[in-house]
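Rotation project, supervised by the postdoc (A.L.). Task for the rotation student: set up a whole-complex structure prediction and record inputs and outputs verbatim in this book. Inputs entered:
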Amino acid sequence: MTRRGLWSAVLVAAGGVATVLLPSRATAQATGFIRGEVLDSASRRPVDGVQVVVAGSTLGAVTTSDGRYLIRNVPVGSYTLRATRLGFGPAQRGVTVAALDTAVADFTLRTAAINLSQVVVVGYGTANRREVTNAVATVRSEDLVNMPVASVAAALQGKAAGLQVIQNAGNPGNGISVRVRGSSSLSAGNQPLYVIDGIPMLRDSYSQLGMGGQDVSAVSGLSPDEIASIDVLKDASASAIYGSRGSNGVVLITTKRGQAGRPKVSFNGYYGTQDISKKVNMLNAKEYVSYFNEAAKNDGYADDELPFVPGVDDTINTDWQKAVLQTAPVYDLSVGMTGGSERISYYVSGAFFNQTGILLGSQYQRANVRANLDFAPSSKLSVRTSIGLGREGNVRNENDNTIDGVATNALANQPNVAVRNSDGSFTSTDDGLEYTNPVGLGVLDNAESRTLRAMGNTEMSYAFSDRFRLNGRIGVDMLNLRDLRWNSPLIIGTYAASAAGVAQQGNTTVSRYVAETYLQWDIPGQRIGQLSIVGGSGVEYNSSENDFLQGEGFGSTQFRYPGSAGKVTSYDGGRTDNNLASFFTRANWSLHDRYYASASVRTDGSSRFGKNNRYGTFSSASVGWALSDESWLSAIRKAGDMKIRLSYGETGNQGIPDDYASLARFSKANYADAPGIAPSSLANPDLKWETTREFDVGLDFSMFAGRIGLVTDYFNKKTDDLLVFRPITSTSGFTSVYDNIGNIANRGWEFQLNTEPIRESRAGGFSWNSDFNISFLKNEVTALYRNEPFNSGIRSLNRVEVGQPLGAFQTLRFKGVNPETGNAIYDDVNGDGDITASDRTIVGSPHPKYFGGWTNTLNFKRFDLRSFLQFTQGNKVFNAIRIFADDGGYYFDNKLKDSYDKRWKAPGDVAEQPRLSYDGTSGARDVSSRFVEDGSYLRLQEVTLGYLVPQSLARTLNLSDARVFVSGRNLVTWTEYTGFNPDVNSNGSTASISLGTDFYAYPLARTISFGIRGSW
Amino acid sequence: MPTLIRKTLMRRCLTPTVLVALLTMATACDKTLTVEPTTEVEESQAIIDAPSVRAALAGAYDALQSGSYYGGDFLFISDLASDDVSHVGTFTTYADIDQQVTAADNSTIEDIWDAIYTSIGRANTLIAKVPEVTQLSEEERNDIVGQAHLIRALGYHNLVRLWGPVPIRLAPPASLNELASTERATVAQVYAQILTDINQATQLMSSDSRTTDASLVAAEALKSRVLLYQANWPATLAAADNVINEGLELAPNFASLFSPSAETPEDIWRVAFTATEYNLSGFYYLSKALGGRYEIAPTASLENAYESGDARLTWSIQRDSRNRRYGAKWRTTEGAEDLHIIRFAEVLLNKAEAQTMLGNLSGAVATYNLVRERAGLAPHTLGVDVSTQTEVRDAVWLERRRELAFEGDRWADLVRTQRAVSVLEIPAFRTLFPLPQNEIDVAPRIVQNSGY
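Outputs recorded:
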């Protein structure tokens, strides 16, 4: 160790920024390389993602898509190499390394149902599954690719226990809601932290266009094709190393990396067509006309006062859903190349994904390129850089919660009006439509959000010795999102028509810079166990700048930009910043390879909080015990591997959408042309982090030579000091203030069962793998500010109340229909004889009782068949469409056929649904539990049949291997829900409280696709 | 070698490295963690000099522009809850108000409550902070504080009309803790405060004439309205006469009162709107074919209340291609028309009513005839068209309905004149709106209006 090396280390650590280290020459040690290839014993196909490690050291590598690996800087000597991979039994072999020589060690792995030797990424390092003492779930890349969905978050649905994924709406590229072990926050967000190659990733919706629940998400900027594996840190003990942002769980994404050897190219592509999976059953023109006439008669209107004339007003019949729906293509193409020398290896890839929406005027496109380089300038210094660039184009049309939506008006408009007039123009309110023509909206209006994205990081690792390593990392995640919206003046009956066109343009630039340094120190020891310590510090700078223009009045319908407008009618612009400074450390201890313990502490300082509570410290501890390795428990050992885990940890949440929430502020309040200011927020200098404390006990069990594996966890998670935009009396001049109040508890069980019921008896024989996961979750609000409940969401249905699940549906309870009057009967909860708002009561929860997924894979000879079932049970969905589509005839919207068929008709009828009422006097107009439906569903999410092209045929195409497949997604859904899709949330991915509402959400597509994968 | 490195690291490198790192980080942290907002300003930097005081005054007027106040809902619901306007659109909160089934969780009602108190809060901030800013002349300081008092008086009168007894707050909240103990005052206390504020406004404001900001004339006009609600006829008469003596007159053309950027001799106090700071009146009333939302529409009852040939009928109520009535008092969806808070015609009608109640029937007829004649109607003759005090009073009330339709007067006027229960066929408790449930939840000493 030279003084130069030391001072370099000090510099790096002090600045929190990795500085180029000067390699030290003084102690160069004789080293060599180990490389090889790992094949599947059955198919002889290369296996990627295999962790090959030199036993008893930290040296190791992961195989790439061609199954190859390279380990650098291996000191001369003889070693045992271990190759491990989830789903395969471990293998080991000896190898001898000579100075500057390359030893070759190939492996063949047998598939296994589960394996405790798998390598998992845990944040600031990796760990062997065997040593992991907390709850971490891993998803493999092959479970993510070739799904016709834009976002990796959508692809995770049903794949891991404890991970709940809600699609929100079916439009291409839509933002997805992800919950790790339930919702634990009211205002600070419930989405997990995404970390890509060590850098926390931008995750939110940055579009400035108001699109109801159809938000965008920065998570979709990453192509699933680039991902090697995803590890989800579920319990607080695992995520505590991410401190103040760990309480919603952490999704660690590792991208693919290069492998030394000759250049190898692989490609993957599929093409599919999408159709509506389920239409909503609405009335046709004849039924519609008779509905309203019956409604009027029921309310005492005379025959000559009826709203419609049968035989005259019902001669046209339009299926508006059919009119706005289309068969739409989806395709994905990706090409990757890897290769390199022993000092430098590379992985480069490019991908293009294009999904046209099944509703007119919607589309999502993404193009990505990635370059991941690994190089080792000296035997002590290694450098990794990962650069991903992307461009997204997301064309949306408004749907949820608007009167000018395509899906909205396709459901709401009258079936007795044609789509177009005889002259070809779109029909309008002048022609009897109640709402704007949805086909016109889909064809003529346009709203596109284009994102340019750059994610990159460089890591340097300097090994002072094989026990002591200094790491520096700098990373960026930057995006520029450009919104452009055009509301055509050609659609009669819209504001845009009266304003001669409306154009909006928004620019948002979001950037995050991260710099971290940390030391890794391994202390081997026999008697007192092996200890490894990680410790370091980091800073993170976040800024978001935006500007916005809206112009109205255009000289030509060809114009699209506000720059061409007659006048500007709205404008905005500004910037917000928030920074984070952190110190963290973690120690892992193991003894005799059967007792494990881990502890971590992280201190975060956030600029978001007042000086009084700027820093938060989050710590965790966990222990594990490999029971089956105890000689005195040989009975268990005979049965299989068994490990019990126990963990406790604290994590934080600071994700409030206001960077200056602790300050009393004034903001812009102009009066006509006079510049103005007005108070906008009250101060709360005591504002601080939310804190989640979580206890987890787990059991990992594997038996019958790995053919049955079970990972089970019980967790109990309590979140205190909830960050809440707490309502205060508005007589103060303010309606809310950010405050730390209330507690939420989540507890539940998770089971992940991986089995191999039939193992192939010989190469190419029949095999069957079956993986099942299920999560049971109970969510409860346990304290609030003075325990005062409050409501949120569409029609204020989502209740936040002590003793209830977060956002439980509170409304009138529908008890049935009065057989004499046909009126709806509601539960008079307070018994005062009147049905009022105070009779609202909890009628269900938007949270499922349990959810999960079941994957079955069959292999026979060259064929493989996979099916994936996904399910959610026990949650309710507020079908808010029924406010207008099942109101008995108060609104002229088209109505649900199902309720029409079950309506009360005459005194004495025992009917499920109330009578029709033109004046809205039957009680059907009241929002009640009648509109809160069972959202449980079981979905055949995927069936894929693949065929491995024979080598002889592949060779004639110059391919080393090739697989073709045909796949169906969202094939069948079994549900009682009457809307398009029960997997819905019209309040969008940023909604924390108001889940489970369907308000004209974009419908879900069914996709049939075929594709090919190959390499040469 | 490894042993040596380990020892060296332990003794000489690791400890100092970590110490230096921590120290440097700790000092860098405070700088890193202190971030100033750029599109907002911290309270201590907000109202400090002449430009910022003037900006804060503009901010107080801005609160009147809110879509829940004069920019929209406040005006709409006063007509929607009456017999003038009915709901034809999709807002379920509007439907409930129209159907007289408004509940305490009606978000539109809550938003109006919030918007009015926001406006009062901004006035409170001015009244508390402006006297400390010595950079302004005393005259300008007084003028600004006076305007704030009138904005506050307007706010409390709008509150007391809709909800009856409401909490009175006259200063920005000193702390979060005091808020939970907020209570309602009595109606008499609220009216006393309104008159105190009007009188302070009168004492403090300059004599500048202005119509999109509060002025001395506006203070007198508002005073005539407030006293009318208190049935204080002599004082109503005096206040109205004070306005009349300022030389105001009716706009010759009724339509010109509702056109964009038009100024008329009738203007007293308007809320200014522009293309960027717009109102929703035209958009919500106009037919869909004209690009309106057609959320609310005039009733047959209102249409029938007009005599034929009334310029107010022909201007304000139109029919679309499907022969549906729509409100056309404001003719653009853009909403850049300035909206009247109070205008001269109302002051005349306030005076006419006071004259009637004081027994000066001929004076009353002469006063309201000014309004009739401007609408192109023949003047009434006492003893021919109207004779008794009741007939004159009813004629004044009818003229008020016709004149101020769609301007947010009707419901409160029915309640004031105790006609609401019979005309609207509603239970007596519905002559006050429910207080927002959220208010009662967060400040339990605020009790709900009975019946809700």
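Student's summary: Chain B touches chain A through 104 residues (CB under 8 Å).
Supervisor addendum: The radius of gyration of chain B is 27 Å.
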